[in-house]
Amino acid sequence: MVELVLDSTKKRISIQYESVINHDTPIYSTTIASNFHLYDMVISQNQPGCIVHLTSATARLLYIDNTTQVVNVANLQPRVLPRNAKQLAYDCNSTVLQVDDLVIPLSWDQLQDRNRGKSSTSTTIAVGNSELYAGTICRVKHILQSKLFLHNDSIKAMYGGMFVVDASTVQKFST
Known about the structure:
Structural class: mainly beta
Strand order of the largest sheet: 4-5-6-7
Mean pLDDT: 35
Helix content: under 10%
């Protein structure tokens, strides 16, 4: 279970997301034994957001401005992983993160733009205005292995979920 604390409201949102992503598979197609999922998605306006609650008919979306909206599942557009992406099996329940900042989900295209010219085997997202703002939650394209790496003020993260960028905001970390 991943716990997010939104700085503006101090509202706690407990979410759980898929643990296995395969090549050429829509990200929201893998399910786990829970009604709570976190999936990468894009709505019709191409506004970045993420699903914090999903049922067979509706999904509750969390946007960058901290607002939520309920939409019809049929209106969601799946994002397909690139063929050169590494397959990942990761138990997200073993990692607990607490974020004291605004949650800012980024779309897959935005991450690709930010990661141009970087290593093809791993992605380091630095803290600060030069890269992503502290506390940003994002989906990362490349992985090194199935764990988070804390290195100075940055985190090397994997795709397959949303992860904290600012190492100083990690209150509890376990693998």
